[in-house]
Model the fold of this input.
Amino acid sequence: MSGYESVSKVYDSVTNDSAKLFVPFILNSIKKYRSESQSLLELGCGTGNILVELSKKYETYGLDLSPEMLEIAGKKDKKSVYKHRDMTDFDFGRKFDAICCMYDSINHLTSLNHWKRMFDCCFRHLVDGGLLIFDFNTLYKFSLLDMKGPTYFKAGKDFVLLENSAKKDRCTWHFNIFKKEKDVYKLFSEDIIERSYEFSKIKEKLKDFKIIEFVDEGGKKPSSKTTRVFAVCRK
Done:
């Protein structure tokens, strides 16, 4: 993940309380499938909203490609260890009971081969029986975003205009950030790109794992109208 130099400053305002969606899923998955877990690594940890909660229960580590996001995470979460790393090519020199990659962070990898490289890194860093937990935006969600109008957010004294454009398996999030400096607003713009793929192609890249759950937000089998998929896999 990259391109968050300006977005990092308003990220928490834009994502709001997103951790409330993902933390329960992670905790429930670990409780069901590896209750003895003690250590956890989050890929694409962003500003640390998920790890600040998980660090209350586990020994936690996080990695991200954005130094700006990691700086914010380190200030709000003193328990976790944060590292500047690429989720497709990292080496912690140790293994974990669980690895998670949430809030469609995997969609930021812009080729299916990069998804596979991330899965391979996770496989090497998991103990036998360890869990890989992740979610992703679907192709159907991209089609909906392409029809969605702009969204406005207030971030302290600043304002954010968020627009989307999508074509088939590619979606671009256009961030226009109006940052107040003294008596004027300065415009900072950044584009964040996501990619998604057919379920069968993603499952093929997970062939080294046993897929335990592959469900929609309601815990049911994904359909052609599913916007987000949650996956739990075992090494």
Notes: The CA atoms of residues 2 and 142 lie 20 Å apart. The domain at 140-194 is CATH 2.20.25.110 (N-terminal domain of TfIIb). The radius of gyration is 18 Å. The first strand starts at residue 39 and ends at 43.
